[in-house]
């Protein structure tokens, strides 16, 4: 009987631990792609600005748009992190 | 000597839920979030109506800021992104930008340090407002072609529509408002959690090992500066995306 109780208790702890690990993986994995993506967007925007400084305003606006769209994926991961933890 | 390692971070709810202190128990309950929203609305009204009323030829400092802000919205966002004939959307976009900007900046005001935009009610409401606005403007201006133009983009091979149409549908009706709200919320929430964690770490280190408190403290100062940038950038991006959606609704694909 006591071993059963112990097992049940451990199962609860196990669930908590696995939930935390899962939440960590969710955010970590969600941040990989957008990290690379934002790097590409900004890098190319800088290159474009260096090649054509007179287009700077337009390029900057478009760059922010690109960042916003790419970043959204990471932020979904951030929200899912809290959902997975609770 | 006390042992380091008993540092406990409070549950997330404690950072974002505030107790009401006025009209408790009614729908009109006022807590810190609501109070900050009211104060910022009032501040915007006072500054911008007061600064814009007197149209002096040599503007004072307040009038200067007000006119520069208007110019920034009108030229940088409305005319460039929505379209040159869309001047009547400047008041809406301007109010949106200033409201979010003022709410975000409470994050770095000493002793208040809480951005009301990190509660889902504010960005959620703003996103729903923008959602309804661009759908109404789109259907009013282009009629049913607004929907078909989005769901069946020209220049796509016929077989690919099986894949493209559902994606575009979800994009137009679900992802756009959701990502608009979540982007603002998650950015401000992450900033608030980061600042809180660093401040708690500083306080904890100060109590136990004062020498290493300098690390988190300096980091906290740096991150506060970074949060000013993030607050401005998020307000700008929210307004910019609203302008892009509006421009898309006003004019068919170029």
Can you give the helix content of chain B as a percent range?
A: over 70%
Please outline the major beta sheet of chain B: none
Uncertain ranges of chain A: none
C-alpha geometry of chain A: rod-shaped
Order of helices and strands of chain A: HH
Our measurement of the CA-to-CA distance between the termini of chain A, rounded to an integer number of angstroms, reads 30 Å
How does this structure look, described?
Chain A has one domain: F1FO ATP Synthase (Up-down Bundle). In chain A, 93% of the residues lie in helices and 0% in strands. Chain A has 2 helices and no strands. Chain A has helices spanning 2-51, 56-85. Chain B has a domain at 12-18 and 92-250. Chain B has helices spanning 12-16, 32-53, 61-82, 90-105, 121-142, 145-151, 161-208, 214-250. Chain B is globular. At the A-B interface, helix 2 of A face helix 3, helix 7 and helix 8 of B.
List keywords for this structure.
heterodimer, A: 86 residues, mainly alpha, F1FO ATP Synthase, 2 helices, 93% helix, B: 254 residues, 8 helices, 0% strand
In short:
The complex is a heterodimer of chains A (86) and B (254). Chain A has 86 residues and is an all-alpha fold. Chain A has helices at 2-51, 56-85.
What is the fold's blueprint, element by element?
The complex is a heterodimer of chains A (86) and B (254).
Chain A: H1 2-51, H2 56-85
Chain B: H1 12-16, H2 32-53, H3 61-82, H4 90-105, H5 121-142, H6 145-151, H7 161-208, H8 214-250
